[in-house]
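Hey, I'm writing a tutorial for new members on how sequence and structure tokens pair up, and I'd like a real worked example in the thread rather than a made-up one. If someone can provide the structure for the chain below, I'll link this post from the tutorial.
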Amino acid sequence: MSQEVIEAPIPGKIVSVSVSAGDKVEEDGELCSLQSMKMQNPILSPVDGTVVEVKISEGQTVETGDVLIIIEED
């Protein structure tokens, strides 16, 4: 099975994390919310799968390209 690595598309602050390791996710399901320039941006799953690892927590600041979540595709 292949893994999908979800990276931060923009720098900002993690406002909420909607998943944890072991959770099943569907394509376009919200994984977390990233606040940048006073706007909240939902980070959505590009695939159906299972969350393998969550590398972020609420309140954490991230930079473009930082790994947020790893999903194993179904």
